[in-house]
Amino acid sequence: MKRAVKRGLSLLCVCAVWHGAALAQLADPTRPPPEARLTAADLADVPPTPAGPQLQSVLIGSNGRQVAVIDGQTVRKGEKINGAVLVDVRKNQVVLQKGKNKQVLTLFPDDAKNDAKKAAH
């Protein structure tokens, strides 16, 4: 009988240790993501967020309808956003005009910079 009790206790201990090890491998769902724990030095490697309006989408309909989504706002050609008029809508970019100043917004600004570099070489 003592032998059976010892065996049972041993088995119980092994199961408890195994269960604890299995739980240790589970991720804590309430733990913040790794990005939230970045230090100031880590943030130096992160590219800065571009200033100014951001073009998020372009829609050019077959019926001539031209729409852009800029900073989450839907703007049709000829309408204003932040005091600037949407004067041109193209496949990957739009042109805003405020007075005499024109600003070109591209869907993929990094790709546009890379294309300009390739064209220069």
TrEMBL record:
Keywords: Signal
Domain of life the protein comes from: Bacteria
Keyword Signal carried by entry: yes
Signal peptide interval: 1-24
UniProt-annotated stretches for the region Disordered: 27-47
Protein name: MSHA biogenesis protein MshK
Organism: Duganella callida
